[in-house]
Amino acid sequence: QSVLTQPPSASGTPGQRVTISCSGSSSNIGSNTVNWFQQLPGTAPTLLIYSHNQRPSGVPDRFSDSKSGTSASLAISGLQSEDEADYYCAAWDDSLNALLFGGGTKLTVL
Amino acid sequence: EVQLVESGGGLVQPGGSLKLSCAASGFTFSGSGMHWVRQASGKGLEWVGRIRSKANSYATAYAASVKGRFTISRDDSKNTAYLQMNSLKTEDTAVYYCIRRYCSGGSCFSDYWGQGTLVTVSS
After folding, report:
1. Is B48 exposed, middle or buried (CB count within 10 Å of its CB: 0-12, 13-18, 19+)?
2. Nearest to B35 by CA among B6, B2, B1, B69
3. In a designed cystine with A16, which of A12, A25, B32, B105 is the match (CB 3.0 to 4.6 A)?
4. Cα–Cα distance between B108 and B35 in angstroms, integer?
């Protein structure tokens, strides 16, 4: 059971905007940077976004993130078929002295 | 070009040992924290542990599920991190990824991932 809670699935049609939530606590999301990762089928995860819209080179600005208190969210606008993947949030936990991952959200583009 | 290349995976019997290596290039390895993350087939990501840089005293930390059985080390002269796994259990079967975790300007992020190496624990 993951300490960071994500919905197991999400879906949308091309062009839609979808959001994925990630809920934690004061010792992780509440006090540390949240990273979001994308894992395409059969590949290693890649860093998607962190710390309020900081994106690695090549990540389109259709992806955005936000954080409020002990919750964070990833938003994808202008949904495309290539966005179909698993998405994970992660944050360091100061109490557990561990990096925590959410359970992952499988995004389906209908 | 940044590369993290894991090696050393394979089939091992329960109770056995295995040592994974992660060879890094394309970034300042000595100044980076290195983590190991695993993923069982069809499952989510699970953090295994980390080793910080020399500037942070090479401090290590481990997930409760592997503490006392796994050891992370590094050789900055070889730009390589290691994961020594002892007393392996069937539930340790997974793809193991090494990742670079870097902190700058108050934000920490895991920006580089290896391709992963498969560890199978089975009799």
Report:
1. buried
2. B6
3. A12
4. 13
Chain A residues touching residue B50 (CB < 8 angstroms): 99
| Count of C-beta atoms within a 10 Å radius of residue A28 | 25
Comparing alpha-carbon positions, the chain B residue that sits nearest to A100 is B47
Q: Is the Cβ pair B107, A54 closer than 8 Å?
A: yes
Best probe of the B interface among A32, A99, A105, by most B CBs < 10 A, is A99
Q: Look at residue B55 and give its three-state secondary structure.
A: helix
Q: Which amino acid is at A37?
A: F
User: Tokens 């992020």 — which residue?
Assistant: B109
| Biggest distance spanned by C-alpha atoms of chain B | 48
| Residues 6 or more apart in contact with residue A110 via CB below 8 angstroms | A11, A12, A13
Residue A8, SS3? coil
Q: In sequence order, what are the residues at sequence separation of 6 or more whose Cβ sits closer than 8 angstroms to the Cβ of residue A58?
A: none
Q: Write the pLDDT tens digit of every residue in B105-114.
A: 888 999 999 9
d(CA B34, CA A56): 19
Q: What is the DSSP secondary structure assignment for residue B30, as one 8-state letter?
A: G
Q: Which residue of A has its CA nearest to B65?
A: A98
* pLDDT tens sequence across A26-50: 999 999 999 999 999 999 999 999 9
Alpha carbon distance A4, A88 (integer Å) = 10
- The answer to whether residue A2 scores a pLDDT higher than 70 is no
> Coil, strand or helix: which one is B86?
coil
Token pair for A59: 């990540």
